[in-house]
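User: Hey, my collaborator sent me this sequence without any context and asked if I could get a structure. I don't really work with proteins. Can you help?
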Amino acid sequence: MDAHCVRVPRERGEETRRSLAEADLVAEDVEIVAEDGAIYIPVVDPDAVPEEYELVTRDLPERSLPEMPADILGYEPSYERLGDVVILDEDDPERAREIADAVDESALPVETVLDRASKIKGEQRVRDWTVLVGDSTETVHREYGCEFALDLDAVYFSPRLATERHRVVEQITPGEQVFDMFAGVGPFAIPAATRGATVVGTDINERAIEYFRENARRNGVEQRVTAIAGDIREVAAEYSGWADRIVMNLPHSADEFLDTAVELAGEDCVLHYYDIQHEDDPYGPGERAIRAAAEPAYDVTVERAHTVRSYAPHEFNVCLDVRLTRA
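Assistant: No problem. I've predicted the 3D structure and written it out in structure-token form, which is a compact way to encode the shape of the chain:
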């Protein structure tokens, strides 16, 4: 079957396969092939493959897979993987139990199956879970070469944003000063530090900050990371004019913190502003809010506006990459 592949010299094959596997990019239903001194590694999402790799399309044989949940159920269930946890979002408890049992019996390397029992709620952005398999909501998630320990019962983390996080981090250059205003367990901040940035992250969730510090140690960047538990508005004065880059991943209410972001911004600063808006005008409200907060002290340039994902019917999670230049 035709498949998108990364082609690398044979001597770099295993190193590349491991790197792609850590980012969950290796396709499991197609064989890896060696031919003419090169290794062809099939990938699930060519758009998410780092630019350093060569992408090609070629015919590869299908792989005989171990028994998966769909083989047991007779249909393809919907679920997410986060470390050794499978996450369901089922309204019907009987269907949730059926899927959980199939996951448990399958060849998936899973310790826990959870079903979402509430929407994200409160300032700390946590939700309730129904534990269907296992007895722990703690796991270690691997993403683009970084490890993140977390407890889903205590912190917010979305594996769906991996590609978006990687897009932002790829823009960072060594020596930048990056401020993550709603850092969580560090999925933006820690990869930024691995690229040579000095990073400050805040979060009102103290458990998230504990994991953030642990994850900085896990990934060997604790010397470049400062993790602060508390409201960013209470510590911003200490970092006034400090940031070369600011991440504002709080899409339901980031506009309430724009005055603080402007206070943090240095002479030339890139702002990654996340928002949720209706399809009729997904980017306009965010741009207007940024301009209202930053002008005339800064010249405001929208360098990129794009849709991250669909959030709800007719609503989208979007990001504005905006450059603030001191006027």
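In plain terms: The chain has three domains: 2-59, 69-136, 159-326. You can pass these tokens on to your collaborator as they are.
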